[in-house]
Amino acid sequence: MSDGHGPAPDTPSGWAAHQPPPYQGAPGSPWTAPGPPPAPHPGPGQNGSAPYGGPPHPGGPYVPGPGPQAPYGPGPQPPYGHRPPPPALRPGIIPLRPLGLGDILDGAIRLIRSNPKTVLGLSAIAAVLGAIPTAIGQAVIFGQVGAAVNDPSALDGVGETGFLGQYGDVLVSSAVEFVVVTLLTGVLTRILGRAVFGGRTTAGEAWRMSRGRMPALFGLVALNALLLLVPVVAIAVVVVALAGAGAGPGTAVAAGALAVLGYIAYAAFVSTRLALAAPAAVLERRGVLDSMRRSWRLVNGGFWRTLGILILTRIITFLITFVVAVPFTFAAALISVGGQGSTGAQIATAVLIAVGGTVGAMITYPFLAGVNGLLYADRRMRSEAFDLVLQTAAIEQRRQGWVHASADDLWLPSATPGAPGPYPQAGRGASWPHS
Fold first, then answer.
1. How far, in Å, CA of 34 to CA of 193, rounded?
2. Which of 271, 273, 259 is nearest to 228 (CA)?
3. Cα of 239 vs its chain's centroid, Å
4. What residue spans define the domains of the chain?
5. Cis amide bond preceding 22, omega within 30
6. Cα–Cα distance, 205 to 201 (Å, whole number)
7. Distance between alpha carbon 282 and the CA centroid of its chain, in Å?
8. C or N: which end of the chain has fewer Cβ atoms within 10 Å?
């Protein structure tokens, strides 16, 4: 009969030999012999590893290591088993979730970096065509100023020529930009639609996919211009009528100032509401009026955020253009003054100004198009859960290891990537199954 102090099968000498690790001794009991306490058994979720910084101990209990330990202490603690959500899927230029300001600006830059030859090449063509009229007008003005160094009478015609140089070239340049920037917006929006999934598009392929949307884009630009110009004409008529009715100059100036402030608010409102019409026309293949209605609905609930991002984007592009163009303009002015209005100096001046304007525009044009396109994608994610559609498609594309040529159809409101299953084999012209 044991008194609790002699050897027994339940003591360490007789028990541990028959137990698998990590048990090195009998369970604690008031009848066990005195000695060091047994090592603790791994708790739930440890499984012999160190979840809070200690190295793993295969086959043995968890021993805390020198790394950061469990966040026990003052303050709120995460619930047991809490794990942070996984990062958003990012197959291309943006994460496939509702976008923040940094995501939109970074995505516009990644659009340029992901396909620099196509994007910058197309932008350079558009920038050259838009910069040539301005460069010619500025060269004429600088040439007359340079000629006035030796002949002050050369400044007699600066007033008339300066007006033509300052405003005539602007009108011509605006007309040219109306055409080339509209074409560029359509092409770059199509490239962006593929770049969201990590796909690349050649210039020829982008043009073939977007040329059918050019009439809709021209219609959008024409209607936008009409909406913005009609109030200007009305304001001018009112101011002239007040002046002709014998109203004092102070009254006319006050009315004009109030009208200008009202017009600025009106232009900001209309431009923001219709800012997403061009991406909708290209990616959703909508008509002119339908694209404008689509943009109006998408901006609902996010007007102030959209307006703020558009204003910030314009400020950024202005600063980029200014910083890039100033050195070329300064060099052109020096050459014009040094050349004293000679033909060679005027040619060199025009070339320098054109180069400065081209370099600045070939960076800002795709940046503006990228921001507008990503704002459109963000508004669809926030209002239509469109990120789930993009994520499903991206997961299937990652599984197959290629980007479907018809991934552009995912931007259609009625298109879905379909249920998981066999997809068409790789190749141009493959299509997603539709429900």
1. 73
2. 271
3. 41
4. 101-391
5. yes
6. 6
7. 17
8. N
Please tell me the least confidently modeled range out of 7-16, 200-209, 211-220, 233-242. 7-16
Q: Amino acid identity, residue 314?
A: R
**Residue for token pair 């060199």:** 348
385 φ/ψ sector (left φ>0, alpha ψ -120 to 50, else beta): left
Taking the C-alpha atoms of residue 131 and residue 149, their distance in angstroms, rounded to an integer, is 27
One-letter-per-residue 3-state SS of the chain: CCCCCCCCCCCHHHHHHHCCCCCCCCCCCCCCCCCCCCCCCCCCCCCCCCCCCCCCCCCCCCCCCCCCCCCCCCCCCCCCCCCCCCCCCCCCCCCCCCCCHHHHHHHHHHHHHHCHHHHHHHHHHHHHHHHHHHHHHHHHHHHHHHHCCCCHHHHHHHHHHHHHHHHHHHHHHHHHHHHHHHHHHHHHHHHHHHHCCCCCCCHHHHHHHHHHHHHHHHHHHHHHHHHHHHHHHHHHHHHHHHHHCCCCHHHHHHHHHHHHHHHHHHHHHHHHHCCCHHHHHHHCCCCHHHHHHHHHHHHCCCHHHHHHHHHHHHHHHHHHHHHHHHHHHHHHHHHHHHHCCCHHHHHHHHHHHHHHHHHHHHHHHHHHHHHHHHHHHHHHHHHHCHHHHHHHHHHHHHHHCCCCHHHHHHHCCCCCCCCCCCCCCCCCCCCCCCC
What angle in degrees, to the nearest 10, is found between the helix axes of 203-210 and 169-195?
Answer: 100
Exposure string of 138-148, with b = 16+ CB inside 10 Å and e = fewer, is bbbbbbbbbbb
Distance between CA atoms of residues 129 and 18, nearest Å: 88
Residue type, 322: F
What average pLDDT score do residues 62-80 get? 56
Query: Is residue 340 within 8 Å of residue 149, measured between CB atoms?
Result: yes
Task: Please name which of 383, 385, 388 lies closest in space to residue 301, comparing C-alpha atoms.
Answer: 383
Q: What is the per-residue pLDDT for 145?
A: 57
Work out the average pLDDT over 36-59. Answer: 47
- Dmax over Cα atoms in the chain, in whole Å? 132
Q: Which of these, 231, 331, 212, 319, lies nearest to 271 by C-alpha position?
A: 231
The answer to whether the beta carbons of residues 398 and 407 sit under 8 Å apart is no
Q: At 353, which amino acid appears?
A: I
Q: Highest mean pLDDT range out of 91-95, 121-125, 170-174, 418-422?
A: 91-95
Could you give the angle at which helices 214-244 and 288-299 cross, rounded to 10 degrees?
80
The token pair that represents 290 in the structure block: 């339908």
**Measured in Å, how far apart are the chain's first and last C-alpha atoms?**
81
